[in-house]
Structures are given as structure tokens and as C-alpha cells.
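Interim report to the steering committee. The following record documents the input for RRN3 homolog, RNA polymerase I transcription factor (576 residues).
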Amino acid sequence: CLLGSCVVWTSIRKHSLSHLNVELDFLNSPPVKTVRFGGNVAEMLVKYKRGDCTDYELLKHQLGDPEIKDAQIINWLQEIRSCVTQLTKEHEQLIYTILRLQWVGRSQAVVEEYLAFLSNLVTAQTVYLCACLKMVVSHFTPSICASFSLFQILYLEPCKYLLPSFSTSRFLMPILQENFPFVQKSSRTLECYVHNLLRVTVYIPSIRGEVLEVIIGKMLKLDVSVSRADIEEAEEKMEQNQGAEELNEEGLFEMDEDVVADQPSRTAVMGHPVAERLDVLMAVMMAYIKDICFVNGSLHVGRTKELLRHLLCVFDKLILPTHASYHVQYTIFYLCSFRLALAEAFLDHLWKILQSPSQPAVLRQAAAGFMGSFLARAKFIPVLTVRACMDLLLSWIHHYIDGHDSSGRQACCDISLHGPFYSACQAIFYTLIFRHRAILEGNMKKGLEYLQNMNLERVVLCQLNPLKVCLPSVTTKFAAITRKYQVVFCYTIIERNNRNVLPMVRSTAGGDCVTTNTNPLDSYFPFDPYLLKRSGQLIEPLYQVWEEPVDMELLPAKKRHQVRRHMLLNMALMRN
């Protein structure tokens, strides 16, 4: 099954030479001869068993000759296949010589004969299975003798050259992990290897979850190793350099249009090398997701559900616990865009994590962040789904406040105790910032009624004081929106919180400095703007960007007194 994607290699160089010099080769080249020394393989093996190793060593030498001809290879392999049951562990040096044979890039006849030999070998002598698998996997990246990899070969029908997948996969996964290129290798090397790993899952579906875990784990290492600021800075520098080059080249010469068309667009290349590698891998992953989920242009529900199940397992194990990854999670974002039921399944998965007391608090907080960011940024989620999710979150928040109030304990703004609660509140505020227009569109009266029925005032004024721990950017925009529609007035709470913020003293190289912690939740929004160019072309039409309304400025100073009076009245009513 593994070798289903490595059937035929075509040698571009030899192919082109044969067409350019057909007449010269025909007139000047002698007839093809198969030169070989010693007897046949069966006789060699008999002599070797008797202690005569001369012909045996000569065979190994001929097979190891880099100038060996295709006809010789076919001839030897056919004879060796007929004796494969005799090639036990004592002949491993001969087998390893054959496995080192440069079969890639040779004629179709050589490749077919070589794969047939591998099939016979691992069937008759399972001791060589791992060695054969390692040899095949070694060709998953561009080799020295070729500038292309296995996924660029001419495919024939999927062939069954190795053992059934349930036997192979147990040995295969460790080999795939061990041979994964270092993440600092070239984009081309990583692209080829990941592409071929994903092709393996087509032939051996039972290892898809493990393969996705390996790939996404490597992609996460790239993702967290470069900050958004570094990527944006590299892009600015690249744009400046390209602008200078264009000015220098302008008017010097006119490049042929065909040449320009054949060159890859420089605008699609990322300025930061780590971002470039990640962009290439994200593009490969998204292409794989689409190929798996769509058959003849139609969504295949069964295959899509199975892929989502695998991705959610990887999400729980790797993505959710990883702080400040900015791009890898968009694989699930992209998959969920195919059908609303997929997005709802993802939201339901996050919701179960958030409300589960058995989950670690840090994962519950991360799930709330994913939930709010997904609801805010995914264009393909309709308002009805957004409202349903907000209703769930608010019901849980109000129930949490009820439980705290009924306990009789003194209010304490403690993130270690109430982290999931604060993250859920921030998810509500963030979602409302992005989705309030959609809620109000169509029927302003009903939309305002819905906002008022959310009872956000109770959330904002509760003793747990969520506005104190939410990001300032979120609280500011939330306050402006809720003031505009007279849903809740937050400015008095915000001002009081600002006065009560305790400074933090930190030691630096230049001495102690006094700062304030503006992100006590240590939160981030997983679906913040996508920065990668190639793969970003698939995300852009699905993504809700932030548009700053003209009436979002803070409340003018002359009206703050009126708002303060209104807030004091509200607080008095709440106490009563």
C-alpha cells in the first residue's frame, strides 16, 4: 500500500536527450548489451553456502556499480526474485546492496521489476520489512540525483506491493517520524515530505490520525517560533526592497512576457523564512483537506466527518494546549467552512471542554478563547448559530454568578479560581463586538430586545468584575458598543478598575521598571488575522475582518458625569 504512490519515475534529463539526439544515438551507439560476470544467482547462492564467495561478491559489486544499465538490473532482479525464499538473514549485505540501488529515475520496466522484487522479498522474508520501508521513505524528499520527489511521478494504478496495512503500519509510523526533515530545512524539502506522508494515508487510512499528529506537531513548532510582529516586519522590509529593485530596473530593459509568466510571483513569497516554510505546509494541508472531503466536486459526508474526527483529536492533544499559535488552527477553520454542521460540531466540542470541571482550567480557558474567536471571525457561521452559542455561554455565566452569590463567600477577583468564567465573559464581549451589527440587521427592534435580554448589565456589575481582567482593547470596544445601544454602561467600572490596578516591578538589564499587567488572563485570539500569503488566499473569503465604525470613539468628557450618575443608580438598584 505504501508503494502505491511510487510506481514510476521518469528521468526528464534522459528523456529530453533521447528526443534531441535520436538520429545521433541511433547511428553512433552500439546495440544494447547486458554484460554480466559469474553464473546465475541460484548457482551463486549454492557456492556461497559451500564457502565460495567469489561470484557472490562479484554480484554485489555489479549491483553497486553506479553505471549499471537498466537491462542488467532487470535481469538480476528477475533471477533474485526466483530465489527470494533463500535470502535469509545471512544474505542481508546483498539485500542492503539492492536497497541502495538507484532505481528512482530509471525506466518504467526497472521500477516495476524493483517493486515486484520488494513485494516478493517482504512477503517471503519479513525480517527485511523495516529496511524496505526505510528505503522507500528516504525518497519522500528530493534526492541528490533528482530535483523532484515521489509525488511528481507518473502514477499507475495503486499496487499492493507490501503487506496489508494493518501489518505495515505498526512498523511504518516510527520510520515516518524518524525521517521527518528538520523544520529548518528548505520549504521544498518539507513540502515534498509532508505531501508524501499525506499520500500514504490515502493508501493506509488506519494511520491517518498518527500522521496528522506528526505533521501538525512539526507545523506548530514553526508557528510558535516566529511572532506576528516578526512576520509583519519581514513583510515590510521585503516590500521596501522590492520597491527599490523595481525602481532600479525600470527602463533598463523589457523582459519577454513569456519569461515573466513562467516565473513564480514574488508577491506570493513570505519575507520571513520560517513563515515561508509554514505557508507552504499550510497550503499542502488545505489541499489535502479539500481532496479528502470532495469527490467529483461534491462533499463526501462520511470522509469529511472522519477527517474532522482525526483533526479534533490532534486539536485536543496539540493545538489547544499550545499557546500563541497563529496559523495551524486554520486547518480546522477551513474544514468547518465546507458545511455548517461541521462548524457546529467544532463549537459543540469547544463548549463541552469549557463547561467540563474535569478539564484543566488552562484548557477550559483556551476553549473559551477558541469559541469566541471562531464565532467572531468565521463568516460562514450564520447569526442564528452565533446567538445560540452566546445563549449557551451566557446561561453558563449567569449560573456561575448565581453559584458564587449563593455561596456567601466574599467576592474575590482571582483568576486562578475563576479563570474559565473570565474567559467565557471575554468570549461573549469579543463575539458581540464583531457580531452586533449582524444581530441588529433586518429587525433593529428585535435585535435590541435580544441584546437587552442578555442581561449583560448583571455580568458587568457582578462582584467578580470581569471587565477588570479582560483585555483593555476588548473592554474599550465592548463599552463603546453597549453604550451606543444603551445596553449597559461600563465606563464607571472601567475607570474604577484603572484606578485600582496595582503596578508590577520587574527587573531588567537597565534596572527595575514599573509596569502594569494588561493581560492577566494571558489570553489571545486564535483566529486573529491570517498573515500567510499562499494559503491565506483560501482563508480570505471566509474571514470576518474588523471594520472600525466611525461612532466608536470613547464617551466625550462632558457626558461622563451623566453616565456616572446612571451607573450609580444601576448599582444601587442591583444592591436592592
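The longest strand covers residues 504-508. The committee is asked to note this result when reviewing the revised timeline.
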